[in-house]
Design goal:
This protein has 259 residues and is of the alpha/beta class. Helix content is 20%, strand content 26%. Bound molecules: manganese (II) ion (MN).
Length: 259
């Protein structure tokens, strides 16, 4: 094991291991998922209020108070986020095992399909086609759906909603079921939530939430820069804030790849 970490250290120092930032900027313009007001209370937008900035309130220091929902911007979904995962003793931000928060990523490129159809759904067969090219998904891997969503629609159209609701890509229930059978660690996307925009209307509503969290597995939403990762071989680092009984949190997601 010593040699593995020495090799990694050498790679980081000589640049043969590259660190890629998979995080969107967090600020007042960060898009927030919008739930129908008749069924749910919505999360507030991110806001920031200055405490001091090298002034009378604090002569040599600058800091702010921030207000935000746990599920804002690039963020982690813990199992207790969903009612199906509420009873897992290790399913909250403060109780989930650290070992689960660093791991290999399988990146499934759905960018061409999404550009042609914003409601594109990745199926179990789509995952199997990816495996036929890139190898079987190993238990404990993170599976990331690349759509280049931010580049495709921009921040102002990130939710891509009209009077028929939001239109953004995601997984089918059979896709999520297959990933659970493969015993993946979690599922990540480049859209505002881990489910497709139209997932409220699915036969199994919100499968990436209800089924993944029901299996004590995790989610990552509003990732970006997945186009900078290879299909396999990257390692991602995804620790949420250690919020007591937290259901998720914004985080900085980093990936290590061979340059
Ligand atoms: Mn979330």
């Amino acid at each position: 094991m010593g040699n593995v970490l020495n090799d990694l250290a050498d790679g980081l120092l000589d640049g043969s291991v590259k660190v890629v930032d998979l995080t969107q900027v967090l600020g007042p313009d960060t898009p927030i998922i919008h739930l129908p007001e008749e069924i749910a209370v919505n999360s507030p937008p991110f806001s920031m209020k200055e405490i001091s900035k090298y002034d009378d309130n604090g002569p040599a220091w600058y800091w702010n108070t921030i207000t935000l929902g746990e599920h804002t911007g690039t963020h982690f979904d813990a199992p207790i986020h969903w009612v199906s995962g509420k009873d897992y003793a290790d399913g909250g931000c403060d109780t989930l095992p650290a070992q689960n928060l660093v791991g290999p990523a399988c990146v499934i490129d759905c960018s061409v399909e999404t550009a042609a159809d914003p409601d594109y759904l990745l199926t179990a067969d789509g995952v199997k086609e990816w495996e036929a090219k890139h190898g079987d998904i190993k238990a404990g891997s993170w599976v990331l759906m690349r759509t280049d969503w931010l580049k495709l629609v921009g921040l102002e159209n990130f939710l891509n909603a009209d009077d028929t609701g939001p239109h953004s890509p995601g997984p089918t229930d059979c896709c999520i079921n297959y990933l659970i059978e493969k015993d993946v660690m979690g599922w990540g996307v480049e859209t505002v939530g881990t489910d497709a925009g139209q997932a409220a209307m699915f036969e199994t509503p919100f499968p990436a939430h209800s089924m993944m969290h029901g299996a004590n597995k995790y989610g990552l939403a509003s990732l970006t820069n997945l186009d900078q990762l290879p299909p396999t071989g990257a390692i991602i680092i995804v620790p949420p804030l250690k919020i007591e009984n937290g259901s998720g949190s914004p985080l900085r997601v980093l990936a290590m790849t061979a340059a």
